[in-house]
From TrEMBL:
Pfam families: M20_dimer, Peptidase_M20. GO terms for biological process: proteolysis. It comes from Microbacterium oleivorans. Keywords: Hydrolase, Metal-binding, Protease, Zinc. Residues 199-346 form the Peptidase M20 dimerisation domain. This is Peptidase M20. The keyword Transmembrane does not apply. Belongs to the peptidase M20A family.
Length: 447
């Protein structure tokens, strides 16, 4: 099978057309046929990988590959996830599972659910390894591929893979999962493209706020119905966000970009030890991404009430999505939410909680290996920098077996491409995706 950019793109599009939408974790009868088809198609499209690497299926549909190197100690783990989030086809300009090619040449875009999140990385990893195996390359250390099947629903695939590796005594020297990307314009007045590499990720919680009452007919409402009490609690939570603060990885990020920043901000960032307290108060006004870097966030995502338009709610509930900045905990967040809501009749219940991850170092051999691959494959002008991963990923489970867990998607992504994740019109530019393949080749060859 020819390994050319055009054929690589063809394989990518073929895999994007398989609708591996996350399975309902509460439905034991959920149809996993798309995941089986995806697995079988990988075997067909990447024969060299499947002839040489050991593959096993974990937790039903997750995949773990092992490429034996000359030394089994201190392996490299490359992660991605197979599942994608659901789509509303009417919102898309192109078929979300058509993998249509829009435009021409290097500027062409592939439009499809999963183009970036996360089949872009998964297929780029396999393209890189298929070419290296075909060349006869043998890594100096073992290389594992860990492809979870239910990352988007916080499922058990990656956890199960970690348990397999832990039982075998595997302790990776470097784990790389999806995360930051090569961006421009995301940081104010920074004049070079930055490769923001997640050295930690925020914790994630779901909290329910519930107000209760006796119910009855809506024609005779009480003085303070449950819905009004809940609305007041929601507004209080919105109007009193968590305080801003500067965590070490964010401080490191601005110290790194300071020499590449225009105007007076160069000196402000370089002196962030002194200016940080002022900056963290300004950042929330500059956009949601900067806001999320400097505070724990809490936002109401779901509201439920009565069963009919003329019925009083016996209970009204708000679901709050909380993302914990390192240094905060689930317990401290609940204490603050109760204090801010200030109403003992509002029940505050934690539905699920995952603490912030440990912080991986942005120095040393593992970090320098990422930096070298970034510069060699993505451009010498690209500036790698530490970063707090704003969303949760499967990589958080790997912190149990490795001290060097990083989150980086090796593609140049525009603001529009980033905003399309989990939304309509998800897409990636062909040239950006092809450079990502080279990144994974360089990262593996550095072993």
């Amino acid at each position: 099978m020819a390994r050319t950019p055009d054929s690589a793109l063809g394989r990518f599009r073929e895999l994007l057309r398989i609708p591996t939408v996350s399975l309902d974790p509460d439905d034991p009868e959920a149809d996993g046929s798309a995941f089986v088809r995806f697995r079988d198609t990988l075997e067909t499209l990447y024969p060299a990988v499947h002839a040489l690497l050991e593959r096993e299926v974990v937790a039903g549909y997750s995949l773990l590959y092992r490429w034996r190197g000359t030394d089994a100690a201190s392996p490299l783990v490359l992660m991605a996830h197979i599942d994608v989030v659901p789509v509303v086809p009417a919102e898309w300009d192109h078929d979300p599972f058509g993998a249509e090619l829009v435009g021409t040449s290097d500027a062409a875009e592939v439009h499809a659910r999963g183009a970036v999140d996360d089949k872009g990385s998964l297929v780029a990893i396999l393209e890189a390894l298929e070419s290296l195996v075909a060349e006869g390359f043998t890594p100096s250390q073992d290389v594992y591929l860990a492809f979870g099947h239910n990352e988007e629903v916080a499922g058990d695939g990656a956890q199960a893979i970690v348990e397999v590796l832990r039982a075998r005594g595997v302790r990776p020297s470097l784990v790389l999962d999806e995360g930051g990307a090569v961006v421009e314009g995301a940081l104010p007045r920074v004049v070079v493209p930055t490769a923001v590499i997640g050295v930690a990720e925020r914790g994630v919680m779901t909290v329910h706020l519930t107000a209760r009452e006796l119910g009855g007919h809506a024609s005779t409402p009480p003085r303070e119905p449950a819905t009004a009490r809940l609305a007041r609690a929601v507004l209080r939570l919105h109007r009193r966000p968590f305080p801003t603060r500067l965590v070490a990885p964010v401080r490191g990020m601005f110290e790194t970009v300071a020499p590449h920043t225009a105007g007076t901000l160069r000196h402000v960032f370089a002196s962030i030890g002194m200016t940080g307290r002022v900056l963290v108060k300004v950042f929330p006004r500059l956009g949601p991404e900067l806001n999320a870097l400097v505070r724990t966030t809490a936002v109401v995502t779901e509201l439920t009430g009565a069963t009919g338009a003329n019925v009083l709610a016996t209970s009204a509930r708000a679901s709050v999505n909380v993302r914990l900045l390192p240094g905060d905990t689930a317990a401290s967040a609940v204490r603050r939410i109760r204090k801010v809501v200030g109403d003992p009749l509002i029940e505050v219940d934690v539905v699920s909680a995952s603490e912030p991850s440990p912080v991986s170092p942005w120095s040393g051999a593992a970090w320098e290996r990422l930096v070298a691959a970034t510069r060699s494959a993505l451009g010498p002008d690209v500036l790698p920098t530490p970063y707090i991963q704003l969303g949760a990923s499967d990589s958080r489970w790997f912190t149990e077996i490795s001290d060097h867990v990083y989150r980086f998607t090796p593609f140049h992504l525009t603001r529009g491409e980033r905003e399309a994740l989990h939304s309509h019109n998800e897409r990636i530019r062909v040239g950006s995706w092809l450079r990502g393949i080279e990144f994974y080749r360089d990262l593996v060859r550095a072993s």
